[in-house]
Amino acid sequence: MNVSDARFAPGARGSDTGGRVTLVGGGPGAVDLLTLRAWRALQSADVVVADRLGPVEILAELPPHVRVVDVGKAPGHHPVPQERINALLVEHALAGAHVVRLKGGDPFVLGRGGEEVLACAEAGVPVEVVPGISSAVAVPGLAGIPLTHRGVTAGFHVVSGHCATPDSSGPLDAAALSCVRDGTATLVVLMGVRSLGAIVAQSLAAGADPGTPVAVVENGSTPGQRVTRARLDEAAEVAAARGVRSPAVVVIGHVAAAGLLEGTRERRLAGAGV
Q1: CA 142 to CA 139: how far, in whole Å?
Q2: DSSP character string of 178-205
Q3: How many other CB atoms are found less than 10 A from the CB of residue 216?
Q4: Whole-number pLDDT of residue 79
Q5: Whole-angstrom Cα distance, residue 133 to residue 15?
Q6: Could you give phi then psi for residue 85, rounded to 5 degrees?
Q7: Torsion of CA 68, 92, 132, 122, to 10 degrees
Q8: Pairing assessment for the beta strands 127-130 and 20-25 based on DSSP bridges
Q9: 125 has a pLDDT exceeding 70
Q10: What ranges does the record give for the region Disordered, renumbered to this chain (predicted)?
Q11: Where are the domains positioned within the chain?
Q12: Which superfamily does 136-256 belong to?
């Protein structure tokens, strides 16, 4: 194991000051979807730098000495820039603290975890990454939407609805457009509520079937979970009419069709003689 690899070893211990950073993926929101390793990291923390999303209820269960720093971002409102978040992790770790960076989903799935690792590495701060259940997979699953299904699709593609493509034609890149147009894979869009109209327009302009099923899952894993379904060409209007809000995951493809798994259930019951 070289020096770089050692920085990422599970349970890696501190720098010269004893400080270290643990990037924790908190999952889609429900506390009971937090992993055991993540919970242990939180229980051993001196400082927790927390996002707005994820299992924020767990913060009330931390030991009383733990300092919580809120760096949550909302759509269009980023009170603590990413560069400052990076600096906070480094500053507290260099002061000797075990810093847990609590993030929604998984740190390395559109979570800027890589940027935070690089900032720590440049400062000589050891980093451990605790993977989390990505909302890209968990939220559709909790809504009964399989991202892959035999006979329907064998793959999925995850993109951010925040990112414009280099030609500024919309948030979807060529690979994502291919998924929608050709049905080669399920398309999952994180942070895509505000750009849903642009996603629809871009997909239709690229030749996608207007009848392609779309599902938008709000507040996945929480008591407020709600699923909105529509055809691709009507998805933006239906979502607006229902008042769909972030956080939400958008799923585009035939796996998003209502009733997809009902036939599977019927066949299973028939096979069991029910």
Answers
A1: 5
A2: HHHHH-SSEEEEET-STTHHHHHHHHHH
A3: 26
A4: 80
A5: 29
A6: -60, -45
A7: 160
A8: parallel
A9: yes
A10: 1-20
A11: 3-133, 136-256
A12: Tetrapyrrole methylase, C-terminal domain (3.30.950.10)
Whole-number Å distance between alpha carbons of 188 and 222: 19
Cα dihedral 102/108/110/112 (nearest 10): 60
The rounded mean pLDDT for the chain is: 89
| Residue position matching structure tokens 């990112």 | 163
Instruction: Render pLDDT for 227-259 as a digit per residue (tens, 0 to 9).
Output: 999 999 999 999 999 999 999 999 999 999 999
Tokens of 148: 């892959």
For tokens 């796996």, name the residue: 255
Q: From the CB of residue 60, how many other CB atoms can be counted at a distance below 10 Å?
A: 8
CATH for the stretch 3-133: 3.40.1010.10
Q: Looking at residue 169, what is its pLDDT? A: 73
CA distance 215 to 250: 6
What does the pLDDT look like over 193-227, one tens digit per residue?
A: 999 999 999 999 999 999 999 999 999 999 999 99
CA distance 130 to 9: 11
- The residue whose two tokens read 């400080």 is 19
Closest listed residue to residue 100, CA positions, set 62, 27, 50, 34: 50
Nearest Cα neighbor of 255 from 156, 124, 175, 176 is 156
Instruction: Identify residue 253 by its one-letter amino acid code.
Output: G
For the annotated catalytic residues, the residue numbers are 51, 73, 191
- Which residue type occupies 10? P
pLDDT at 77: 56
